[in-house]
Amino acid sequence: MQLTIDDHERGKDFVTESEHKRLLQGAGQLRNPERNQLLVMMLYRHGLRETEAANLTIQDLQLESARLWVRRIKGGLSTEHPIEGDELRLLRRYLRTRSLNLPWLFVSERGGPLSRHSIIYTIGQAALKADLGHVTPHMLRHGCGYYLANKGYDLRLIQDYLGHRDPKHTARYTRTASVRFTGLWGNKA
After folding, report:
1. 116 and 106 in contact (C-beta within 8 Å)?
2. Which of 2, 35, 151, 176 is the most interior residue, by most CB within 10 Å?
3. Cα angle at 82 between 64 and 43, to 5 degrees?
């Protein structure tokens, strides 16, 4: 076992933006492609844990205003997130494929809520189709944090978006964000 001095010395445990796109394509090759692509997109875009995704309900959606209520677990702060256009289109396409009288957003083939184990399995299968190797839902959550940090968003915004109560859980994303180092060797007067 390798000992590390700090969290940033861990191996890569996140999905990049380009890997996320490949994962979406892989999910489209599985059974229930609309559901699985939406699952991959929402895990990444909203930094959801697999249990948070499994717990999403139709009532958490406000399609008219393109908003999603994200109920965080583990003592996290729940927040309302915007749903972007491509995600909204995918969401509507998925909703047309299933019975709307069921309360859960992600539904299994048996008509019940998609379990967290099914979510883990689905992400793993999509990763295999995308030739990405081992990918977990939590790697999509971390990918969200790194994506936001690399876009230059501050620690506080990322903390609130991911529902962290303690900023120490968010610091890993901003601390190792490559965008911080851009231009270090340019002409700085």
Report:
1. no
2. 35
3. 115
Helix/strand/coil (H/E/C) assignment for every residue in the chain: CCCCCCHHHCCCCCCCHHHHHHHHHHHCCCCCHHHHHHHHHHHHHCCCCHHHHHCCEHHHEECCCCEEEECCCCCCCCEEEECCHHHHHHHHHHHCCCCCCCCECCECCCCCECCHHHHHHHHHHHHHHCCCCCCCHHHHHHHHHHHHHHCCCCHHHHHHHHCCCCHHHCHHHHHCCHHHHCCCCCCCC
Query: What does the pLDDT look like over 143-166, one tens digit per residue?
Result: 999 999 988 888 889 999 999 888
Residues with a known catalytic role: 49, 74, 138, 141, 164, 173
Tokens of 108: 């299994």
CA 180 from centroid of its chain's CA atoms: 23
pLDDT digits (tens, 9 = 90+) for 120-143: 999 999 999 999 999 999 999 999
Nearest residue to 77 (alpha-carbon basis) of 161, 173, 171:
161
The answer to whether 26 touches 129, Cβ cutoff 8 Å, is yes
- Only one residue has tokens 């844990």, namely 49
How long, in residues, is the chain?
189
Q: How far apart are CA 15 and CA 147, in angstroms?
A: 9
49, two tokens: 């844990």
